[in-house]
Specification:
With 230 residues, the chain is mainly α. 66% of the residues lie in helices and 0% in strands. The chain is built from twelve helices and no strands. The radius of gyration is 19 Å and the shape is elongated. It starts with a helix and ends with a helix.
């Protein structure tokens, strides 16, 4: 884990430490087994594994746990994404969606800790060509409830390495399926893609790489970007 991300995780634990574990975490007995529920009541927060928390993370705020539980377990859930123990991008998006929906009333230091973590996680993803997480999982979750993604796009623009450009090619490929949607996230990403800077970046990466697979990916992304921004 990058030192900046480790520091951000530490800040998460500090900011949310004021939220103790509930004496009893509510759950639907038809959806959650007693044996799996009791794990969250007995195992210390920082010792919970991705396996312990995966179904809870998926069901959180529906049939297992409430907002107080979200705030208690959030540092550990996000810590597991940072360390790579949890690799399900869909769970990251869902977690961030919950944060964006319920977080409007949270304390400023809690929201700052989440933002610091997300920016640090973004940087770690962009510097790892083979990252287990795709940037879209972070962006789509961060954009929920009408939030801006411009700070994350700015981080991306400042990351010049080939790995960041590989992730850009993935974004263009993924974004093509939903390009026409008219929400804040899609408007901001469309505007970013239309600046012309990204096309230059992809072309430079295409010419510079000695990896045939990467060259093919960059070339394909350039073709898609031209179509999307026409």
């Amino acid at each position: 884990m990058h030192p900046d991300l480790q520091a951000a995780v530490t800040e998460l634990y500090a900011a949310f430490a004021r939220h103790p574990r509930a004496e009893r975490i509510g759950y639907c007995g038809h959806c959650v087994a007693d044996a799996e529920a009791v794990v969250l009541q007995r195992v210390p927060l920082r010792r919970l594994t991705a396996g312990d928390l995966a179904r809870f993370t998926f069901k959180l705020m529906s049939t297992w746990g409430d907002e107080a539980d979200l705030r208690h377990f959030l540092p550990r859930i996000l810590d597991l994404f940072a360390s790579g123990e949890q690799r399900d991008g869909g769970l990251l998006t869902k977690t961030l969606s919950n944060v964006r929906y319920y977080g409007a009333a949270w304390a400023p230091d809690e929201l700052a800790a989440v933002e610091g973590y997300l920016l640090a996680l973004m940087r770690q993803i962009l510097t790892d060509r083979d990252s287990y997480l795709q940037v879209t999982a972070l962006l789509e979750g961060a954009a929920e409830n009408g939030h801006t993604v411009e700070p994350y796009l700015a981080v991306w623009a400042e990351e010049p390495g080939e790995a960041a450009t590989v992730h850009l090619a993935y974004l263009i490929d993924d974004f093509g399926w939903t390009f026409s949607r008219d929400d804040r996230y899609h408007r901001e990403v469309r505007a970013w893609l239309r600046t012309g800077v990204l096309a230059c970046r992809l072309e430079a990466a295409f010419l510079a790489t000695d990896d045939p697979q990467a060259a093919n990916r960059f070339g394909h992304a350039l073709e898609q970007l031209e179509f999307l921004t026409a």
